[in-house]
Amino acid sequence: MRKNLGLKKGDLVAITETPGGVLITPQEVIATRALDRIGELLREQGLTLEELIESGREERGPLIEELYGIKATNQDH
User: Fold this and answer.
1) Which of 16, 19, 49, 73 could bridge 23 with an S-S bond, Cβ 3.0-4.6 Å?
2) Would you say residue 12 has pLDDT above 70?
């Protein structure tokens, strides 16, 4: 079965029970689908991945300070 699916020993898979049996999906495929869906949702919101990453950087400093009492430096932003 592994050979037919192109899987090597130790590759991660997801196993999903279906009405017709069991669906085995390589984790790489699942990750790619999830990333594609995230990209679709970002486009629907008019955002780019770069904008999302930058907004995370802007929020990180105040969040670290609030949660841990650590004052962020310019290097952390």
Assistant:
1) 16
2) yes
